Amino acid sequence: MENSKIRVGITQGDINGIGYEVILKTFSDPTMLELCTPIIYGSPKIAAYYRKSLELPVNFSIVNSAADAGHNRLNVISCAEDDVKVEQGKADPEAGIAAFNALEHAVKEYREGLFDVLVTAPINKHTIQSEEFAFPGHTEYLEERLGNGNKSLMILMKDDFRVALVTGHIPVKEIASTLTKELIEEKLTLFHHSLRQDFAIGSPRIAVLALNPHAGDNGLLGNEEAAIITPAIKEMAGQGILCYGPYPADGFMGKSGYIHFDGVLAMYHDQGLAPFKALAMEDGVNYTAGLPVIRTSPAHGTAYDIAGKGIADENSFRQAVYTAIDIYRRRKSDKEAHVNPLRKQYYDKRDDSDKLKLDASEDIL
């Protein structure tokens, strides 16, 4: 039973934010250790500092690798220099280096098959930038490092409310020129597949939001709906994907239209994430779909303004752990269901009918 526990790799994120606080608060609950084997890629020294300063009732063991992780306890792997200084609430390049080193170490051990799912604490997207990390965020980094050629899809979720994005971390001025029929079709395909495989929804229904106010108002406010979005919806619908729209974003969210769908595809970052976070910030989870690796994170950022005060809510991080475990189990079940499809049986004059009928009866038994 112990060996069957899902091994959760956790990156420390920005050491000056609320990452360690929400991690340690999450695993101060002993029932979490019955559910999984957590492995933090970070710093035992910094973990001990936050444990003491916040008076958190959690113990951990220092290990050299996820291969050495013990069950029924929190494990910490040292990925940072011992002299890294914690300055709570401060954006510091040294903290960015520490966050990157933890991420790189986790990616290396994931490739070696040493843990099952990845949960990332928030990073500062500015301080982590370097020659080695020239990405807008975790999503793009993981797509390159662990995607094996697959494209990623950002999904923000809480229970049955799921919002995915066509475009992610790009300037607003580039959104319209980036949107293409092919890109929308790609994201719809990824979303549909993830809803089926990762969330076990047999025939998912996807709502597609418009780009312009009032869905372009018949071309008065823009023609992307008529020229790009609607043709993409029709093409995907013709391939069996249940997708509808484009819906004006304000009215759709304002009237809770999302409750009638399994997923909502937004055209750009703030169009999807602003209403999502207004409705589900405390419990929301960021899931990177489309990749072989299962990666989740809390829906919030580093929260420098409350770092070190002991008031950070860990529920979003806890939900990120739950979600990663649930998706791992669903993918495993989906894979097992498709390993040995039922063998076709043929009964005609050319077959050894008695033998075939015997084989069929044995299959039933």
Model description:
With 365 residues, the chain is α/β, with parallel strands linked by helices. The protein has 2 domains: 1-150 and 291-338, Isopropylmalate Dehydrogenase (3-Layer(aba) Sandwich); 151-289, 3-Layer(aba) Sandwich (Isopropylmalate Dehydrogenase). Helices cover 39% and strands 17% of the residues. The chain has 12 helices and 12 strands. It has a 12-stranded mixed beta sheet with strand order 3-4-2-1-5-12-11-6-7-10-8-9, sandwiched between helices. Helix 7 packs across helix 8. It is globular. 45% of the residues are buried.
Question: Which features does this protein show?
Answer:
12-stranded mixed beta sheet; Isopropylmalate Dehydrogenase; single chain; alpha/beta; globular; about 375 residues; 12 helices; 2 domains; 12 strands; disordered C terminus
Outline the fold blueprint.
Blueprint: E1 6-11, H1 19-27, H2 30-35, E2 36-42, H3 44-53, E3 60-63, E4 74-78, H4 93-111, E5 117-120, H5 138-146, E6 153-158, E7 161-165, H6 175-178, H7 181-197, E8 205-209, H8 224-238, E9 242-247, H9 249-254, E10 263-266, H10 269-280, E11 285-289, E12 295-298, H11 315-339, H12 353-364
Parallel strand pairs: 1-2, 1-5, 2-4, 3-4, 5-12, 7-10, 8-9, 8-10
Antiparallel strand pairs: 6-7, 6-11, 11-12
Helix pairs in contact: 7-8
